[in-house]
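Worked problem 6 (solution included).
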Amino acid sequence: MKIKIMTLVVAGLFPLMANASNFAAYGSAGTNGFGLGASTSINNNLGARLGFNTFKISTTQQDANGNYGVDLKLMTVSGLADYYPWAGKFRATAGAVYNGNKATITAQPTGAGSYVFNGVTYTSSDVGAFSGEMTFNSVAPYLGIGWGNPAAQDKQWGMTMDIGVLFQGSPKVKNTVACGAAVVTAGGCAGLQSNVSAGAAQLETDLKNFKYMPVVNVGISYRF
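Solution. The predicted structure is:
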C-alpha cells in the first residue's frame, strides 16, 4: 500500500513537469547523502521536484569478543511539491519519500569473548554468528522549508537549500543468530534465539524517538 502511494505521488508529478516550460537539474549534499534531482516551475508560486539521494559507508573492527562489520546505507527517492508564497526564493515543501535507509551489523565471535542478549551472557562457543538490521517505514512524509527556485527564469545557475523533517517512523530491528556447537549440544539453541529476539524488541523501544530524521541539504542547480 505504501509503495502504491509513493508511485501515485511520483506519477502525479510527471505530467506537471512535462507540461511546464521551465526545467532545471540540481545536485546536493546533506544529511541524507548525495543527491541528484529535477525541478520545474509550474507558475510563479508552485514548483515540483523529483530527487534521488544516496550514501553508503562500511567499517570493520575487532576486539576481544570478535570481528564486527557495520554498514550504513542511505537511499531515498522523493516526490516534492514546492510553494513560493511571495513568488521569490523562499519556499515551503511537502511530499512523499521512498525510504530505503537502513543499518546492518554482522559479528563473528572469536576466542573467549562473550555476548549478552536480553540480560543473558553467552560465550563465543555458544554463538556461531550474529547479524542485525535496522530499517524504517518504506514510504515517509516530508515537510520542510527551503531557499532557491532552480527553474526560475532569472538565471541559469543557482544555489539551493532545504531544511526539513522526514517522518520515517520508529526503527524496526531484526536480529538473527546462528547457534554455536556448545549451545546446540546443551539444548539451549531455542533459548538463545528467543533472547536475541527479545533484545531486538527492547532495542526498538529504546530507539523509538528516532522516528524523525532531520534533513539539511545544500546544492547547485542549472536551468535548461
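Discussion: The longest helix spans residues 2-19.
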